[in-house]
# Entry
Amino acid sequence: MSYLTFAKEMLKNLFSSPATTQYPLQPKEFAKGVRGKVLNDIDNCIFCGMCQRNCPADAIVVDRTKRTWTINPFSCVQCQLCVDNCPKKCLHMEEHYTEPALEKADVVMEGKPLPPPAEPKA
# Structure
């Protein structure tokens, strides 16, 4: 009896499509709503620090004076709180996971420098 169940399973697997994907040839398609890594459109960022204050993992550091935005992608827990609380909506989640790396490095983005203050007219 066990040979019949084995033969039935073997024939089913022989004539059906594989359960796995051919990864390098067919990249993985992420389901809608999958959270990936955080990206910042630095040109729209006002460096208010709301993302830093709402990050539960302390993965984001905003420096207003130097106009830098830094994220540690290996500390980020992809909770999307920074994206939801950004007043300028310059943060968004990319549907790809953080790539593996040999060393943990922060991603530092620099914004445009502030224009010089206008001189008062006499």
Observations:
- The two ends are 102 Å apart (CA to CA).
- The longest strand covers residues 37-40.
